[in-house]
Amino acid sequence: MRLVLVYVLSASFGLAAGEARAAATCDPTTVSDTRKSVAGTCDCATATSRKDYLKCVGGALKSAVRAKTLTHECAAAVRKCAAKSTCGNSSAVTCCETNAKGTTKCSIKHDAAACKGPHGGTACSGTKPGSCCDACTTSGCAS
User: Fold this and answer.
1) Nearest CA-CA partner of 107 in 97, 99, 98
2) Strand intervals (E) in the chain
3) What's the mean pLDDT when you consider all of the chain?
């Protein structure tokens, strides 16, 4: 019984250490490179539906995780960018809303007319298909 307990505890600590190493390897460059790679397979601009686009991204990420070329943490970050995108919805736009205090948030709106700034703030909508992950800067829309 003690031997089993020692084994379980050491395996648990090993797993926790492995998870910490995996999370540390998910840096902005890895996320950016993975997003570019996924874009080669799942084209945002030509996606015919949001559902199909997200399914394509999910499949590409699942394959990379299974092949151990991508951590679960990085896959989740890339999946989040895909979920907060206009891909598969031709009329949707990214909307960067900056409040009076200067804090900018991004959301997806049905069209540019729906992108309105908060009271005392400003808003700008993206002009091309994309994700909230790269649509806004700290002070508004990215170029």
Assistant:
1) 97
2) 93-98, 104-109, 122-125, 136-137, 140-141
3) 83
For the chain, the domains span 27-89, 93-141
7 pLDDT more than 90? no
Tens-digit pLDDT profile for residues 87-105: 999 899 999 999 999 999 9
- How do residues 29-57 score in pLDDT, each as one tens digit? 999 999 999 999 999 989 999 999 999 99
Nearest to 61, CA basis, from 50, 48, 77, 84:
77
Residues comprising the chain, all counted: 143
**Cβ distance 86 to 92 under 8 Å?**
yes
Q: Are 89 and 109 in contact (CB under 8 A)?
A: no
AA identity, residue 66 = R
Beta bridge partners of 14: none
71 in Cβ contact with 27 (< 8 Å): no
Long-range CB pairs of 58-65, under 8 A, 24+ apart, other chains included: 61/34, 64/34, 64/37
